[in-house]
Amino acid sequence: MxxxxxxxxxxxxxxxxxxxxxxxxxxxxxxxxxxxxSFHNYVINQAKKExxxxxxxxxxxVVDSNRxxxxxxxxxxxxxxxxxxxxxxxSTSNVNLHEDSVLDIISKSDGLLSSNGLTYCxxxxxxxxxxxxxxxxxxxxxxVAQNKRLVNxxxxxxxxxxxxxxxxxxxxxxxxxxxxxxxxxxTRIESVFNMSVIVGNVTTSLKQTKTDEEKNDVSTxxxxxxxQLSNLSGEIATCLNSPETKLDYLTKNEKxxxxxxxxxxxxxxxxxxxxxNDEGVKVPELSSILENIKHCVEDIKDTIDLIEVKDN
Amino acid sequence: xxxILFVEDNGSVFEMLNNELDSSKYQIVRVRAVDExxxxxxxxxxxxxxxxxxxxxxxxxxxxxxxxxxxxxxYAFIKECLLDGETDKxxxxxxKSKIIICSRYILDFKSKxxxxxxxMHLVDKTREFEKEVASVIEKICKG
Lengths: 312, 143
Known about the structure:
The complex is a heterodimer of chains A (about 300) and B (about 140).
Chain A: H1 2-10, H2 15-56, H3 70-88, H4 99-108, H5 115-204, H6 212-241, E1 249-250, H7 252-277, H8 284-306, E2 308-309
Parallel strand pairs in A: 1-2
Helix pairs in contact in A: 2-3, 2-4, 2-5, 5-6, 5-7, 6-8, 7-8
Chain B: E1 2-7, H1 11-20, E2 26-31, H2 34-44, E3 49-52, H3 63-68, H4 73-82, H5 89-97, E4 99-103, H6 106-112, E5 121-124, H7 129-142
Parallel strand pairs in B: 1-2, 1-3, 3-4, 4-5
Helix pairs in contact in B: 1-7, 2-4
């Protein structure tokens, strides 16, 4: 009960509910007042009737035990008292009922409510409690529904965010993989270009050799450098043809840079070839080696030319 | 313990092959260049099995050999060292049966030297080639 009262008192009631409660209290109070007044009057009238009766029938006794209504019991009490007063008095004029005395007696047995009034009050209280409880339940239902909607919305949002994250992660992985592939190819192509320049520089020293032996030594060393060049070019060709490392696409700038490096490499190789084929130098073995490397680099360039250009 | 000569200049490839083999069964010698391979055969040979990469450092090859065996320097080692001077067909076949050529240029090589390389084992350096090489080594060494 205390808990119930606590809940009810803690309720944040809306203005309309408070208004209705006040109306109910006011009407209840009015009804009570009217009820009590009519009860009082009824008691008085009953008492008067009893007294009149007793006056006319002095030997009769008052209490009718069959009358169980409280109003009648009260009226009987009034009559008993009046009777006693009358019996103690010799004058018949004292039979007159003093309303004040009656009221005094009634007020002493006050606290009694008419059955209608009692019913009304109990009904009112029960009704109030019920409406408060229902109001509270309704509010709680609304909150539960709202919560459910929020939870569903949150779950949906969570799923969408997870999906977005996975997509973003996949895209990032793809981009990173693509960038890694391009970087791999580009660094190797740079190395091929640098090596072709070194080979070119060393090749020019062939002109400074004086004997065949010297020429052969220098040529052999150039051939060792060409092995490195050949190795690197072969690796690039393998990368471009292997499913794991081949390039699916290039951006415009990437393609331009790679192509320029390859063109520069081919230019260096052609210069070296012209040099070793020159009458003054003439090293056919080096010519053959450089020619093979040039073919390999040309194949690489053809492969790069065919790769699709895509902007990120 | 069986002796194996690895002629491979690429360190990571050698690691992959080495990891596939049981070190308790095989004594492995690794070299990177033609001259080193020749030296290993002279000092520690003959071996029970030879795994040869085609593209290795051509040190000790002449200029004309480098031109002839460009991108096939490993085959220069096989021809000029392992099979050099051998005339007995049976012995030649025996040596060839112990050789595994492992390279990414195996298809071109096969088409060019088809008859010469009959009897040798050829492995293309594609995905999981190291497992194939290990299995062939095991067969060779068991025989």
